């Protein structure tokens, strides 16, 4: 797992997170995938329309993102945001 104390790539990644919070229905799958890799490490499963990322807890919020013709579905985007928030809470 990638530590939240390490720099979160570039400024564009922060912009992606802001956009995810503003418009969860308008996020590119590749952008969401990049954010998930930065916070949760490499996907356990990818290559299909789904990518599953491991979290340090069991159950919700799960990190299972879906590719819908290049866009990420809104529901998994909200789950990813919840999981990132939970990670930040655990680190503080």
From TrEMBL:
Residues 45-69 are annotated as: Disordered. This is Toxin HicA. It comes from Burkholderia lata (strain ATCC 17760 / DSM 23089 / LMG 22485 / NCIMB 9086 / R18194 / 383). The lineage of its organism: Bacteria, Pseudomonadati, Pseudomonadota, Betaproteobacteria, Burkholderiales.
